[in-house]
Amino acid sequence: RPAVELVDVCKVFDTSATPPAYAVDHLSLKIASGEFFTFLGPSGCGKTTTLRMIAGFESPTAGKILLEGHDVSGLPAHMRNTNTVFQSYALFPHLSVEDNVAFGLAVKRVPRSERGDRVAAALDLVRMRHAAGRKPSELSGGQQQRIALARALVNEPSVLLLDEPFGALDLKLRREMQIEVKEMQRRLGITFIFVTHDQEEALTMSDRIAVMSTGVVRQIDDPVGIYERPTDRFTAGFIGDMNMLSATVLERQDGVVEVLAADTRLKLKTNAELPAGKDCTIAMRPEALTFMRDSADDAAFAGKVESAVYVGTDRLYNIRLQTGEAMTVRVRNSRADSVLRIGEKVSLFCPSSAIHL
Ligand code: ADP
Ligand code: MG
Question: 49 and 193, same structural domain?
């Protein structure tokens, strides 16, 4: 039984508009118990709305939501076995850390005698027991977010919802919290549903990621699948850096297509329905490309170095192809001939296994 199931869930805020603007557009998916599941997408794509519907703060315009197999339509937020952590910690400034965490227990009418132990255990989880008597204003941003987490965990929810919880933290602290919270989730075995616009954060923390744009889930897969096997142009462009070229299918035979892109013929394996004449997109990571200085190979993209950036471990080159498209190549500095001059002619190669169709 999935922890959460969305069946054709839609949300339209302004029902008078024609055509209706879907904030969430026919979303169907299942989230397994104990899974770390992330909604990833740009601002405005419907992540928060989706989370708020699962939490019960917002009701779907159509479709249904099941928690552990039960339809929760009409069930208010406090009756669901979920808890939410928001980007703004929303701690009570006049209450101590301990009382902030205990507050949720009082709301859920947990007997007073049990509260002390549960609060202490929740504070242990986030390694903040030493701060039990302090006020939120005496804590750093990262510590306040830990208290917000403890306050959500103290209720022992079966599903924890987290909406960009590290959004207000600086990069270094954010990275620490990502690893810490992922580790905590693994230990507790609670289902975490996480929302972020940060692809690196999603790749770091998730068991599976749903990539969203304009209310629609584009792809659901584990981090490796999302990064290495994007199935659509939006996902390919949103996750990491990707070079994309328009291509046309020349020929198809036995699961291999020959395509023409930027005046270059490439043979690629595919299961996709791509008859001759069909337009498609090929996508290649900057780190998957290699260059050669003198080559007339027709399986390579010919171009000139337009600009160069040094990024420590690597160099990034922008290459302007003869056909006009721009490509980025990422080269390890440890490679002996890694330095290219501006204006230099190069040929770019990509192994066919690293070309996404
Ligand atoms: P995200 O969290 O991915 O940034 P949201 O779920 O907040 O996106 O928003 C999705 C879309 O729904 C946006 O176009 C947003 O403007 C709209 N929206 C969100 N909340 C409301 C609301 N309360 N009233 C009207 N429109 C809303
Ligand atoms: Mg949001």
Answer: yes
Q: Do 155 and 271 fall within a single domain?
A: no
Helix (H, G, I), strand (E, B) or coil at 303: strand
Whether the CB-CB separation of 182 and 10 falls below 8 Å is answered with no
Q: Is 47 in the pocket of ligand 1 (CB under 6 A)?
A: yes
Structure tokens at 337: 């001939």
Q: Residues 224, 323: one domain?
A: no
Count CA atoms closer than 13 A to 209's CA, side-chain side: 28
Give the total number of structural domains in the chain. 2
Chunked into runs of 10 residues, the chain (357 residues) has average pLDDT values of 96 88 96 98 97 96 96 91 82 94 85 92 91 94 89 90 89 89 92 96 97 97 94 90 95 92 92 89 94 78 95 94 96 84 94 92
Are 207 and 297 in a shared domain?
A: no
Domain boundary, last residue among 236, 261, 291: 236
Whether 210 lines ligand 1, by a CB cut-off of 6 Å, is: no
Cβ neighbours around 107 below 10 Å, total: 10
| Cβ of residue 13 lying under 6 Å from some atom of ligand 1 | yes
Beta strands, E only, the chain: 4-12, 22-31, 36-40, 62-67, 70-71, 82-85, 159-163, 191-196, 208-213, 216-221, 243-253, 256-261, 264-269, 279-284, 290-292, 301-310, 314-321, 326-332, 345-349
Of 207, 236, 265, the residue at which a domain comes to its end is 236
Q: Are residues 116 and 167 in the same domain?
A: yes
Range of the domain at 68: 4-236
Substitution candidate for ligand 1 out of 49, 53, 88, 163 with most atoms within 8 A of CB: 49
Same domain, 232 and 310: no
